[in-house]
Design a protein that fits this description.
alpha/beta
């Protein structure tokens, strides 16, 4: 398999965990995997971007501009910020729910992610996921697994849902495994409908 996947969001959304689950699942399937995170001010809600390159001809962990097969975005503005990585026929899975920047509390700009989603729809093929709806009472802490489930449900990830669920069981702390599996399956079912 040859696949370049970029996972993006803001600090605290579980971007790095989702990328590690994808990378580990790809390695379990016998693939060569390179990955890297660029996390900047992640602890303060800043951008987090994880590059995952699967395949023998991926010599660098960073995806070149215009080469990503898929972008999995946990926040609409982060999807837009990273569209330069997407190849011409690439695909985006994006969470509808925005994370408002700190400056929003000082000056209400009205950012709700709608304009970002519309921009993405004009630029590429995508699906928009409402992680809040998928996670329900479990809350934002599990958005990453819901969106990962949706990405798996598209069939474009190149990794079966069963392999990803096995990685969740192996890599997520035991007390959170069932909740992560529940929302992963909700994301999977939402795309399959």
């Amino acid at each position: 398999m040859k696949k370049d996947i970029l996972v993006c969001g803001v600090g605290g959304q579980g971007t790095v965990l989702a990328s590690k689950l994808i990378a580990s699942a790809a390695m379990t399937l016998g693939n060569t995997v390179h990955s890297a995170e660029t996390i900047g001010m992640a602890q303060r809600g800043g951008s987090v971007t994880s590059h995952i390159r699967i395949g023998d001809d991926a010599y660098s962990p960073l995806i070149p501009f215009g080469s990503a097969d898929m972008i999995i975005a946990f926040e609409p503005a982060e999807a837009v910020r990273n569209l330069m990585y997407l190849k011409k026929d690439g695909f985006v899975v994006v969470n509808r729910i925005p994370v408002k920047p700190a400056t929003e509390s000082l000056h209400d700009s009205g950012y709700d992610g709608t304009q970002m989603i519309e921009y993405i729809k004009k630029k590429c093929e995508c699906i928009v996921v409402d992680a809040s709806e998928l996670c329900g009472e479990l809350g934002a802490k599990f958005y990453n697994s819901a969106i990962l489930g949706a990405a798996a449900g598209t069939g474009r990830l190149g990794i079966s849902p069963e392999v990803l669920i096995a990685e969740i069981e192996r890599r997520v702390p035991e007390r959170f495994v069932e909740a992560n599996k529940k929302v992963f399956n909700a994301g999977l079912a939402a795309v399959g409908e």
